[in-house]
Every structure is written in structure tokens, then in C-alpha cells.
Amino acid sequence: MPDTANTAMQTMTLDLGDRSYDIHIGEQLLDTVGEFLTPLLRAKRVFVVSESTVMTHQGDRLKAALSDSGIEAKWFILNPGEATKSTAQYESLVSGLLAAGIDRSDTIIAFGGGVIGDLAGFAAATVLRGINFVQIPTTLLAQVDSSVGGKTGINMPQGKNLLGAFYQPKAVIIDISTLETLPRRELLAGYAEVVKYGVIDDLDFFSWLEDQGPQIVDREAGAAGTSARAQAIAHSCAAKARIVAEDERENGKRALLNLGHTFGHALEAECGYKGILLHGEAVAIGMIMALDASTRLDLAKIEDLERVRSHFTAVGMKTSAREVGRAMTADALMTHMTKDKKVEAGTIGFVLGGIGSAAIHHGVDLEIIHAVLQDSL
Ligand code: NAD
Ligand code: GLY
Question: 24 - beta bridge partners?
Fold first, then answer.
């Protein structure tokens, strides 16, 4: 069960010594964001990186809050979508920041989903060898995963997230009310990353999600839904903070957060990052594939596979590659997997195991992986 009881604001700290930072979670935090930002700013000026869809739905709130706090803001509004995480957009953004006179006393604000967080974070990591930055995530995926932990980066023609840096923000400010304008499909995609924390090492949380999941992803569920969503986000952030504090650079436990991602990245690559399959949707199918492989390798019970599959189905998520509606082959997916970042010394690292007991496995028989892919198609 989540250790939080309601939607009252809460703050937790990601403990990384002198790079520790707070994660604030609550409703309407955007409207008073100056209270959180002001103590962090060296100059009373911020460079906000966002995109047009987020600005349409939530931009006026941030503009008003910064103005109310007397914080000068310069705005860099990009196009929405994964294509924005490109070298061209990165160069254009950094050029714009420099042309606008950014200096080392300034702060970059990443205001948006994972695309903006990853790109703005990478710009912050690299411009002038490092500028302070703050994450204000506006998608469920970004609120439970990408805004926390300091992975920043962009995509390369060779693959996703292949250029990047570990660079921690100075704070993460999560206003759950921003999710009120998020399309249901995006909410569901983010929910896959919530379920991931349960499947990795938290059976109680997974059981709680089986009960609460339908209202977490239902924006019409009223106060009960808001409360469940807040609890799920806080529990997810606490899990991520605990794992990152233990293993910031992914030399061990952090790799568990890649559950379903080796399969998922292959599906995403095959679908072409054009909205046919969202990242979280690919991760959900990838988690089912990982559980399927685990049962074939006697690392999980068949009941665990069926339990996670039933839960995804109950909240309205796809659980197999055949439901994506795009012709794919197991051979093509295998080829993408061999190019994944998680390939080490020529072997693919798979996160496998039952609910609550995931571990990294190298040297997995690729015939079994091929069969899992084939059966999902
Ligand atoms: P995204 O940033 O593209 O946002 C999804 C969609 O929601 C976009 O169309 C966006 O315009 C819209 N949107 C965002 N906030 C909204 C709001 N409040 N109201 C209405 N619409 C809104 O995608 P995402 O799912 O947030 O993030 C995916 C990216 O995150 C991928 O590039 C992935 O690689 C990356 N990622 C990074 C990490 C990490 O640790 N750094 C972890 C997981 C995923
Ligand atoms: N989303 C995986 C990680 O942050 O490590």
C-alpha cells in the first residue's frame, strides 16, 4: 500500500549528497511555483523550455505564477512530439539560450512531458558546461519516472536516447492537476511506468494498483480518483528516489527500472516514433514479454504473467504486439534489441522475474526471446 494518505502536498528528498534535491507533489503547485523556485534561483530569471501543446493547456498558469513572484522568464516553445528530441532541435535550443544571454547564474525550467524534460535537461547539462535546472513535469509518465533521477538526452539516427548525460535537477515540482488536460491515452501510457514499480520489487503496491488502477486512469473518477492518482505518483517517486539514491549511474539496481524496456524500445523503433505506439504503451507490452520470457525460463509463475496481463487489460491497455496494428517480424525486433543501450560486452541484459522479484539476467537464450516475440505478434 502507498504510504501516503491523501492529496495534501508532500515533499520527499532524493538523497545524493551535495546534489540532493526535493520532489514536491501536490495539487495546484503550478500556481504558486515561485515559492518553490525563489530559494533555488541565483538570479531572479528563468529560461523556460516547453512545447506548444503544454503551453496551450497549462502555459498561462506558469506565466502568471512567475510574474506574481517577480521572476523574469524567457520562453523557448518547441514542437510537441518525440521528433523534438533531435540533434537539430538541441542545437537550435542551445543557440537560442546563448543568444538570449544565458549565464551560469541562470536556471532552466523544463515544463512538459518526458520529451521536454530529456531535451531541456540535456541542454542544461551541456550549455556553459552546466546550468541549474528544475523539472516541472506535466504528463503522468514524466511525473512518475522521467523527471526524477537525472537521465537527460536526445535521440540519434542510430537509436533512442543515445546522446545524453546523467545530470540532476535542483528540484522536481509535480502539480497533479496538470494531468486534467492530458489525453487518456497518454495517462494510460504513463500508468505502465507506475505498474512497473510494483512488478520490480513491490508486490503490495501492485496489489493496491489492481484495486485502484481503474480510478487512477479515470479523470472522471472525482476526488477518489485524484486521491488515488496522488498516492500512486508519490509512491512511484519514492520508489524511484530510493533506487536512484542507491545507484545513480545504473551500475546495478537502477537497471531494474528498464523492466520491459528492451522489448519496448524494439517495438517503438519498429513503429517509428510517430505516435503509432507511445513509449509507455511499448513498455507495457514489453513488460508482458519479459514476464512471458520469465515463465519460460522458470523465473516466474504463469499466474504472475496472467495477473499483470489481466490488470493491463482491466485498465484498457494493449498487452501484445499484435494489437498494435502494424506488421512486424520477430527478426526485425531482435535486430533492434541488439542495438539497445543495455547491450554489454555483446550480450543483452534482460530484466526478468515474477511480480516483486525482478533481477538482471545476461546470457539469456535468444531462441526463447525470439519465441516470446513470435507469440506476441
Ligand atoms: P511527451 O513529452 O511527448 O508528452 C506526451 C504528449 O502529451 C505530448 O503530445 C504532449 O504535448 C502532451 N502533453 C504533455 N503534458 C500535457 C498536459 N498537461 N496536458 C495536455 N497535453 C499534454 O511524452 P512523455 O510520455 O511524457 O515522455 C516520453 C519521453 O520520455 C520519451 O522520449 C522517453 O524516452 C522519455 N523518458 C525518459 C526517462 C528518463 O528517465 N529520462 C524515462 C522514461 C521516459
Ligand atoms: N527510466 C529509467 C531510469 O530512470 O533509470
Answer: 11, 173
